[in-house]
Design brief:
about 150 residues, mainly alpha, about 0% strand
Length: about 150
Protein backbone atom coordinates (compact mmCIF):
# COMPACT_ATOMS: atom_id res chain seq x y z
CA UNK A 1 0.00 0.00 0.00
CA UNK A 2 1.41 3.36 -0.97
CA UNK A 3 2.04 6.17 1.46
CA UNK A 4 0.81 9.72 1.06
CA UNK A 5 3.27 10.43 -1.80
CA UNK A 6 1.98 7.43 -3.73
CA UNK A 7 -1.61 8.50 -3.16
CA UNK A 8 -0.80 12.06 -4.27
CA UNK A 9 0.88 10.69 -7.41
CA UNK A 10 -2.11 8.44 -8.08
CA UNK A 11 -4.49 11.36 -7.59
CA UNK A 12 -2.47 13.55 -9.96
CA UNK A 13 -2.40 10.79 -12.59
CA UNK A 14 -6.09 9.87 -12.41
CA UNK A 15 -7.21 13.49 -12.02
CA UNK A 16 -5.01 14.60 -14.90
CA UNK A 17 -6.35 11.86 -17.14
CA UNK A 18 -9.95 12.72 -16.25
CA UNK A 19 -9.37 16.46 -16.77
CA UNK A 20 -7.67 15.81 -20.12
CA UNK A 21 -10.53 13.58 -21.24
CA UNK A 22 -13.14 16.08 -20.06
CA UNK A 23 -11.43 18.90 -22.00
CA UNK A 24 -11.04 16.72 -25.11
CA UNK A 25 -14.73 15.74 -25.06
CA UNK A 26 -15.88 19.30 -24.42
CA UNK A 27 -17.19 18.59 -20.93
CA UNK A 28 -14.72 21.01 -19.35
CA UNK A 29 -13.34 24.24 -20.75
CA UNK A 30 -9.59 24.79 -20.65
CA UNK A 31 -9.55 27.17 -17.68
CA UNK A 32 -6.26 26.79 -15.76
CA UNK A 33 -7.68 28.20 -12.51
CA UNK A 34 -10.69 25.86 -12.60
CA UNK A 35 -8.53 22.87 -13.47
CA UNK A 36 -6.14 23.73 -10.62
CA UNK A 37 -9.10 23.87 -8.22
CA UNK A 38 -10.44 20.57 -9.50
CA UNK A 39 -7.00 18.98 -9.12
CA UNK A 40 -6.86 20.31 -5.56
CA UNK A 41 -10.17 18.61 -4.78
CA UNK A 42 -8.92 15.45 -6.48
CA UNK A 43 -5.81 15.44 -4.28
CA UNK A 44 -7.95 16.04 -1.19
CA UNK A 45 -10.02 13.00 -2.19
CA UNK A 46 -6.84 10.98 -2.73
CA UNK A 47 -5.68 11.76 0.80
CA UNK A 48 -9.02 11.57 2.62
CA UNK A 49 -9.23 7.80 3.32
CA UNK A 50 -6.04 7.93 5.40
CA UNK A 51 -7.21 10.81 7.58
CA UNK A 52 -8.46 8.21 10.05
CA UNK A 53 -4.94 7.58 11.36
CA UNK A 54 -1.86 9.58 12.31
CA UNK A 55 0.11 10.02 9.09
CA UNK A 56 1.78 12.61 6.90
CA UNK A 57 -1.27 12.42 4.63
CA UNK A 58 -3.51 13.23 7.58
CA UNK A 59 -1.30 16.16 8.58
CA UNK A 60 -1.30 17.55 5.03
CA UNK A 61 -5.05 17.05 4.66
CA UNK A 62 -5.84 18.84 7.92
CA UNK A 63 -3.41 21.64 7.12
CA UNK A 64 -5.36 22.26 3.91
CA UNK A 65 -8.67 21.93 5.82
CA UNK A 66 -7.51 24.50 8.39
CA UNK A 67 -6.40 26.95 5.69
CA UNK A 68 -9.73 26.65 3.85
CA UNK A 69 -11.68 26.93 7.11
CA UNK A 70 -9.71 30.05 8.11
CA UNK A 71 -10.42 31.55 4.69
CA UNK A 72 -14.15 30.88 5.15
CA UNK A 73 -14.08 32.50 8.59
CA UNK A 74 -12.20 35.56 7.32
CA UNK A 75 -14.75 35.91 4.50
CA UNK A 76 -17.50 35.61 7.14
CA UNK A 77 -18.95 32.42 5.66
CA UNK A 78 -19.56 31.05 9.13
CA UNK A 79 -22.10 28.40 8.12
CA UNK A 80 -19.70 26.93 5.55
CA UNK A 81 -16.82 27.10 8.06
CA UNK A 82 -18.85 25.29 10.71
CA UNK A 83 -19.89 22.55 8.28
CA UNK A 84 -16.29 22.10 7.17
CA UNK A 85 -15.13 21.92 10.79
CA UNK A 86 -17.80 19.34 11.63
CA UNK A 87 -16.96 17.20 8.61
CA UNK A 88 -13.24 17.39 9.41
CA UNK A 89 -13.91 15.66 12.74
CA UNK A 90 -15.57 12.59 11.22
CA UNK A 91 -12.61 10.54 9.86
CA UNK A 92 -11.02 9.70 13.22
CA UNK A 93 -14.33 8.13 14.29
CA UNK A 94 -13.67 4.49 13.53
CA UNK A 95 -10.66 2.30 12.90
CA UNK A 96 -7.97 2.65 10.25
CA UNK A 97 -9.07 1.17 6.94
CA UNK A 98 -12.59 1.10 8.33
CA UNK A 99 -15.46 3.13 6.92
CA UNK A 100 -13.13 5.58 5.11
CA UNK A 101 -11.92 2.72 2.88
CA UNK A 102 -15.31 1.73 1.45
CA UNK A 103 -16.88 2.38 -1.95
CA UNK A 104 -19.95 3.95 -0.32
CA UNK A 105 -17.80 6.47 1.60
CA UNK A 106 -16.28 7.46 -1.76
CA UNK A 107 -19.79 8.51 -2.85
CA UNK A 108 -21.17 9.83 0.46
CA UNK A 109 -18.19 11.78 1.89
CA UNK A 110 -18.10 14.43 -0.87
CA UNK A 111 -21.91 14.86 -0.96
CA UNK A 112 -21.76 18.08 1.12
CA UNK A 113 -20.05 19.68 -1.90
CA UNK A 114 -23.45 19.41 -3.62
CA UNK A 115 -25.89 19.38 -0.70
CA UNK A 116 -24.72 22.54 1.06
CA UNK A 117 -25.22 24.76 -2.01
CA UNK A 118 -28.64 23.15 -2.55
CA UNK A 119 -29.60 24.11 1.02
CA UNK A 120 -28.13 27.63 0.81
CA UNK A 121 -29.08 28.87 -2.65
CA UNK A 122 -32.50 29.26 -4.22
CA UNK A 123 -32.61 28.04 -6.94
CA UNK A 124 -29.25 26.30 -6.84
CA UNK A 125 -27.11 25.86 -9.92
CA UNK A 126 -25.24 22.73 -8.90
CA UNK A 127 -23.35 22.33 -12.19
CA UNK A 128 -20.04 23.79 -10.92
CA UNK A 129 -20.42 21.89 -7.65
CA UNK A 130 -20.87 18.62 -9.54
CA UNK A 131 -17.46 19.19 -11.12
CA UNK A 132 -15.83 19.53 -7.70
CA UNK A 133 -17.81 16.54 -6.32
CA UNK A 134 -16.58 14.48 -9.28
CA UNK A 135 -12.98 15.60 -8.79
CA UNK A 136 -13.01 14.63 -5.09
CA UNK A 137 -14.64 11.29 -5.94
CA UNK A 138 -12.05 10.55 -8.64
CA UNK A 139 -9.25 11.22 -6.15
CA UNK A 140 -10.95 9.05 -3.55
CA UNK A 141 -11.32 6.28 -6.15
CA UNK A 142 -7.59 6.47 -6.95
CA UNK A 143 -6.78 5.97 -3.25
CA UNK A 144 -9.05 2.94 -2.92
CA UNK A 145 -7.73 1.48 -6.17
CA UNK A 146 -4.10 1.85 -5.04
CA UNK A 147 -4.97 0.25 -1.69
CA UNK A 148 -6.44 -2.77 -3.50
CA UNK A 149 -9.99 -2.26 -2.29
CA UNK A 150 -11.50 -3.28 -5.67
CA UNK A 151 -10.14 -6.81 -5.97
Amino acid sequence: MPGYKGHLAGGIFVGGMCATGAVMFGLLHMNPLLIAGLMGFCLMGALFPDTDTESKGQNLFYLIFAAVDLGLILKKYYIWASWLGFLAMLPPIGSHRGWTHTWWAMIVVPLPIILIPVMLFDPPDITPFLQFYSAFTVGYFSHLLLDGEFR
